[in-house]
Design a protein that fits this description.
mainly alpha; extended
C-alpha cells in the first residue's frame, strides 16, 4: 500500500508540474517545475523523505536505462558530428566545469546552513 501511495504522490506532483508548465509562460520544462516543487515540499517539511523514499530509490536505480537510447543515437550519428568534434569537446568541458563548480557552491551553502541550523536547535 505504501508503494501505491508513494507512486501516486510522485505522479500527482508530476501532474501539477505539467499544469504549471501550461500556465506559466516560461520556457521551463515541466520536470524542472516538478523537481523544484518537490524540493520546496521537502524543505518546508510538508513531505518527509520517508514518505517517498522507496519509490524514489527505485526510479534512481532505473535511471541509467533511460540513457542507453541517447548514447546509441550519438554513436550512430558520429559521422554528422565529425566536423565539430573540437567544439563539442570544448562545450562539454566548459559545461562540466560549470556544473561541478555550481554543485560545489550549492553543497557548501547547504552544509553551512545545516551546520548553523543544528547549532540553533541545540
Amino acid at each position: 500500500m505504501k508503494y501505491i501511495f508513494q507512486l501516486g504522490f510522485i505522479c500527482f506532483l508530476s501532474f501539477i508540474a505539467e499544469l504549471l508548465h501550461e500556465v506559466i509562460p516560461l520556457p521551463v520544462p515541466a520536470s524542472v517545475y516538478g523537481l523544484v516543487l518537490l524540493f520546496l515540499l521537502l524543505c518546508l517539511k510538508v513531505v518527509k523523505v520517508e514518505q517517498i523514499e522507496t519509490v524514489s530509490g527505485f526510479f534512481i536505480s532505473a535511471m541509467p536505462i533511460f540513457f542507453i537510447s541517447p548514447s546509441v543515437s550519438l554513436i550512430t550519428s558520429f559521422g554528422a558530428m565529425k566536423g565539430s568534434v573540437l567544439s563539442l569537446i570544448v562545450i562539454i568541458v566548459i559545461s562540466t566545469v560549470f556544473t561541478l563548480g555550481l554543485t560545489g557552491v550549492v553543497t557548501q551553502f547547504v552544509m553551512k546552513r545545516r551546520g548553523n541550523h543544528s547549532k540553533e536547535d541545540a
